[in-house]
Every structure is written in C-alpha cells, then in structure tokens.
Write a structure and sequence with these properties.
Blueprint (H helix, E strand, L loop, with lengths): L1 H28 L6 H6 L5 H14 L5 H4 L8 H14 L5 H8 L5 H14 L2 H11 L7 H13 L5 H9 L7 H11 L2 H6 L1 H7 L5 H11 L5 H13 L3 H10 L7 H6 L6 H14 L9 H4 L10 H15 L4 H4 L7 H13 L6 H10 L3 H15 L4 H13 L6 H10 L7 H5 L2 H10 L6 H14 L5 H7 L5 H15 L24 H5 L2 E6 L2 E7 L5 H12 L8 E5 L3 E4 L28 E4 L11 E4 L12 E5 L2 H4 L8 E6 L1
Length: 661
C-alpha cells in the first residue's frame, strides 16, 4: 500500500518541482535583481532549488546577493557548494575571495575545489592573486592544475603579478598542470618569464598535445632569438596540426628577416595558413619604403597556383605598396561574390590615392550589398583622412546620406566615420541635424550598435541641439544605450542624468510561452547543412535552455537557410546567422546571456555572438580550439565533433539549411 501511495504521489511531486524550477528560470530570464523569491529558494529544503537559484543569481550577477550566497559554500550538497562558488565568481566582487579561500581549507570534493579556484580567478584582485600563489605551496599536488587555471582566469582580466608568472612557469614541468600552465603563461605574456623559461618552452614544441604546441608558439613570438625563430619557422612549414601552424606564422609577424619563407606560404594548401601568412607578411613589411618583393608578388595576381580568395588578399598588399600605380591591377570592384567585391573596394582604399575615390563612390552608390557599402565607407575614409577639407566635406556629405539605407551595419560604420577626429568638429557639425534625424528613426535592438555610436558622436561634438535625442535615450530600455546616453548627457551639460531609470518590466520580455519548453524535450540537436558539409550540433540544454529554445524557433522558421558565415578568424571561430551578412543583423529581438559552470569553450563549442551581455539574437559561432577566455561571457548552447567541416568553412560559405533532430 505504501508503494502504491508513492506511485500516485510521485507525478504530483515531479510536477511541483518542475513548476518551481520554471519559476526560478523565469526570474533568471527576466533579470530580477534583489529578488525575495530567489533569496527564499536559497534556503529551500530541496537542494535542486538551491542550486538553480544560485545559477540564476550568477546569470543576473546580483551583487546584493553575495552575503546570502557565501554561507552556501558550506552546504551539505556538493552541487550547491560548487554552484555557490560559481555564482560568487560570476558576480566578480573581490570581497568574496576571503570566503572562497576559507572554504578551500575544509572542502573535500575535487569538483568543488576546482570551481572555487575558478571563482577566485574571476573575482580576486592583485592581493588575491598574491595570496593564491603564497598559499599554493601548502596545497595538495592534485590542486596544481586548478591553481594554474585560476591564474589564467586572473590573466584573462588583466590581473597579473610577477610572483604568479614565475610560479605558473614552474608548473610547466608538472605533467598534470602542463596544459593549464602553458595557457596561463600565454595569457600573461610576460616576456621576461618567457625568456627565462625558453628551454622548457622550446621542449614544449615537441609535446604530443597540439594545444601545448599551439599556445607555446604564440609565446615564443615575443623572443628575438634565432634558434627560437628557426623553430617557429619549421613549425609553420612542417607541423601537422594547422592550428599550431597558424600560431607559429602569427608569432613570426614581426620577424622581417623571414619574409621570404612566409611569402612561400601564400600558396599553402591550407587556406587558414595562407591567409595568416598574408597578414603576417603585411606586418613584416609595413615599414618598408620600397616594394622589394614586387617581382615575386605581382605575378601572383594572374597565377593559377593560388586560390581566388588568396589572390584577392594579395591585391591589398600590392595596393598598399604601389599606391596609385596599383589601381589597374585591382580590377573592377563589381563581382557576383560580395566578399570579393568588398575586398577590391578595400584594396582601392589601401592605395590611399584620391584617384581611387570615383570607383569607391560608384560602389557606394550602386552596390545593393551592405558588405560592399561598408567596405566603401572604410576605404573612402582611409583615403580622405590626410586629404584637404574639400575632399573631406564630400566624403561626409556622401556618408551621411547612407543612413537612409536603414541598414544597421551601414549605419554603424557611418557613425564610426563621424567619430574620426581628423575631420574636425566644424566639418562634422554641419551634418548634425541629419545625424539627429537618423538617430530618431532608429530602434533597439535592431539598431543598437549604431545608436550607441551616434550617441558617442553627439558626445564628441558636444552640441546642445542633440540633447532631445540624448534625453530620450536616458529612458531607453536597453542598458547599453542608457549608459552611453548618461555619459553623453554629462559631456554636453556638465551634469549627471536628471532621470532615475526604473526598470520596465517589459525590458526583459520573454520571447517564448511556457508551453514552448516542450520543444526542449522533443529535440536533442541540429544538423547545420553547409556548402562545405554537415555540422551536427548536440544541444547543451541544461546549460542554456533559453538560448537552445531560441535556436530551435529560428530553425523551425527556416531563418538560417541561405545565410552565410560572414566572419572567420583562423584558429578562433567561424561565425554565421546574420540575415544582413555584415555582422550587425539579428531576428528583431534579443535574448539573455546564459552561463553555466559546466559549459566551457572547448574546441567545437557552439556559442552565441553578442554586442555585450544580454544582447544575443541569431548569430552563433563555433570554436576551432579551446578558448577559455570566453568562458562565463558568451552563452554556449551546443557542441559539435564535426571539426573537419568547421575547419573548412571560410567567410562567404553558406548555411544551406538547419535540420532539427
């Protein structure tokens, strides 16, 4: 009879628990600060409720909750203790470090200890870093990887100290700590410590772990040592892992004596390596007055031995070196491929010749592709920065009209151009009425970045005629716009904002209905079918339920079908999902950032791009390699093992469709 009673009661208990977790989840998504409900859940008899409340507070980053969180470092549940440490770390206030250090003296759970070290690295100041190093001598051997990871977390926030740099260097010889220590030392980038440990680092280049070789290559670039450079050059040419090669090529970018060897990599079969070689060559030769390699490089423009995309990149080098004489070699900006057209427009700008202006103006007036128009603004601006006022006046006259295209990316780029102080305030103020009128037509979140940059223009010009727009922005729901408006108001008036903003309950209005969460149980992942192959993503639903749900919604609407990967940074990320194709587009709404201690940026992590906390929309990225500096900053909603396809993706490649499974 007792068992029968439990069988009847169980569904009701599960329903009640699900209902409570949904309430906690909603408080998190609505960013409810100083929530009495969340504080009450911290004292619930159910450890799951305590854990999820801590996660919600970590996402909200509610600084008022620190005193309520700290006691939970002593909770009976290891999961709750671990989440308490995570929450303190994400709130990021240094007063939490003493409680974290105290817990280390009694904590027995390894996972909890790792999270405590992470939290110390996320919230401690220099004195906390020094305390960490001082106490590390008394810590168990198995904690050394955690200490190295904590030091890396400090370094990611630009908090460094000589004692920490020297200590983490000693961990290079510890097998268990070697990966974390190498990463930490790379993020610290202390040239003296790198030089003092050169022998150990050189041996790292033969380590079986490609991550150790990759991060070590980045460090060695700071040394002007022939043996080190020869090793980097050998790695750039012969290494099996392309990511290590990319880092080695980058490390050589200041070593001009090796430019011929880097030049030979322009034809490398791996496009990531070839593109990186071009960028490094540009760095090597930036200060060369004579184009000494013209006989080697100019023939590349007509050669079939190089990929079309590489030839287009080479045009920028030729343009920068030959100036006006390069214009005939660049060719017409018109191309069926928008990235090629944009590249040629940028090459015209690189000539810095006023004779290139008519072609750039033609692109600005005739192209219907925002990528080309953005390239045109930037190219034109490069040329006119050192021209006379008449040329600058014409540039500003053309650029201000481009706000009429109502494209977020174009408007953002135009606003940046109006911040260029080389044009002088008087020239720019002429267009202030049109800039104000353009701002008045904009709306967040679609025009968020453009609005912020125009507010910065108003601040720079410091003209009271912009005050009505600034005052309007003081009550804008988006916190980024409000904050920028407050600074602009003070610049123009010399006074603090007269408005005390009361958060609008609709500021974080849900994009979902309660019943929509059924979709999370229906789908476990998605196949992103691209022009280079299939990328199978397994959703991280526990880590980012809202973000996952948003991706499911968009996939169901076929939002992603036909969009491009508009941004690829070799040995970092591929990024897509922008309907505008220029990095400024989205679905017309924003969702909140979701962070979770178990969601970390390993290779193949699928994260959400953003313009700052809680500004995610539709753009996502996939990592080529581990990127721990992104942990806790960008939502992760999935992982993929199809890195062979991810590694082939280049800017301009397409998402043909997304299939949920």
């Amino acid at each position: 009879m007792r068992h029968f009673f439990y069988l009847i009661l169980a569904p009701f208990l599960l329903f009640a628990q699900s209902d409570t977790l949904a309430a906690i989840r909603e408080l998190q998504d609505r960013r409810v600060e100083h929530s009495a409900q969340l504080m009450a859940y911290l004292h619930s008899s159910n450890p799951k409720f305590r854990e999820q409340s801590l996660l919600a507070i970590a996402n909200i980053q509610d600084t008022s909750a620190i005193e309520n969180i700290a006691p939970l470092l002593n909770d009976d549940s290891a999961k709750v203790r671990s989440m308490a440490a995570f929450a303190l770390g994400m709130i990021g206030k240094p007063q939490a470090t003493s409680a974290l250090f105290n817990r280390l003296t009694v904590e027995k759970n390894d996972h909890c200890n790792e999270e405590i070290f992470n939290a110390i690295g996320r919230c401690g100041r220099v004195d906390g870093l020094q305390e960490l190093v001082s106490k590390s001598k008394t810590y168990p051997e198995k904690w050394k990887p955690y200490v190295a990871q904590s030091i890396a977390r400090f370094a990611n926030r630009k908090v460094t100290d000589a004692s920490a740099s020297n200590y983490v260097a000693t961990l290079l010889q510890n097998k268990a700590s070697k990966v974390n220590a190498t990463y930490a030392l790379m993020r610290i980038n202390d040239t003296t410590v790198i030089r003092n440990n050169c022998t150990e680092l050189m041996s790292n280049m033969s380590n079986s772990n490609p991550l150790i070789r990759m991060w070590t290559a980045s460090m060695l670039g700071s040394l002007n040592d022939d043996a080190v450079c020869e090793k980097l050059l050998f790695t750039a040419k012969k290494e099996k892992d392309w990511r290590v090669r990319v880092n080695a090529v980058r490390a050589l970018r200041a070593k001009s004596k090796y430019k011929n060897e880097i030049l030979s990599l322009f034809s490398d079969s791996n496009e990531h390596v070839a593109r990186t070689a071009i960028a490094s060559y540009e760095g090597m030769t930036a200060n060369e007055i004579q184009f000494s390699d013209s006989a080697k490089i100019i023939p590349m423009l007509q050669s079939d031995n190089y990929a079309v995309s590489i030839n287009e990149e080479v045009k920028k080098i030729v343009a920068a070196k030959l100036g006006e004489r390069a214009i005939p070699l660049i060719g017409s900006w018109k191309s069926d491929q928008s990235l090629i057209a944009a590249g040629r427009v940028r090459a015209l700008g690189a000539t810095r010749s006023v004779k290139a202006i008519p072609m750039i103006t033609e692109a600005l007036e005739q192209s219907k592709n925002s990528i080309v128009v953005i390239a045109g603004i930037e190219a034109y601006q490069t040329i006119v920065q050192h021209a006379d006022d008449s040329v600058k006046k014409e540039f500003l006259k053309i650029v201000v009209r481009l706000f009429n295209k109502t494209d977020a990316g174009i408007s953002y780029t135009a606003a940046i151009a109006f911040q260029d102080t080389s044009f002088g305030k008087a020239l720019r103020k002429v267009h202030l009425p049109l800039l104000i009128a353009s701002f008045n037509k904009m709306q967040s979140p679609d025009d968020l970045e453009a609005m912020v940059e125009l507010l910065n223009v108003f601040s720079d010009l410091s003209d009271s005629s912009a005050l009505p727009m600034v005052e309007k922005s003081l009550v804008e729901q988006d916190i980024v716009i409000r904050t920028t408006a407050e600074k602009t108001y003070k610049t123009i008036t010399g006074k603090d904002s007269p408005v005390r903003f009361n958060k609008n309950p609709d500021e974080y209005k849900p994009f979902y209905k309660s019943g929509d969460f059924e979709l999370l149980s229906r789908y476990s992942g998605a196949e992103v079918i691209t022009s280079k192959g299939k990328i199978k993503i397994t959703f991280a639903k526990e880590a980012a339920p809202f973000t996952t749900l948003n991706f499911i919604f968009l996939a169901q609407k076929k939002f992603y079908n036909g969009l491009s990967f508009h941004r690829v940074v070799s040995n970092f990320v591929i990024q897509g999902g922008d309907p505008l194709g220029n990095g400024s587009g989205g679905p017309g709404y924003t969702i909140r950032t979701e962070i979770h201690p178990d969601a970390q940026y390993t290779a193949g992590a699928v994260g959400m791009a953003s313009a700052g906390k809680d500004t995610e929309g539709s753009q996502f990225f996939i990592t080529h390699c581990p990127t721990p500096h992104l942990d806790g900053r960008y939502s992760i909603f999935g992982y993929t093992k199809d890195l062979d396809v991810v590694n082939k993706i280049m800017a301009g490649d397409r998402i043909e469709r997304v299939v949920l499974f």
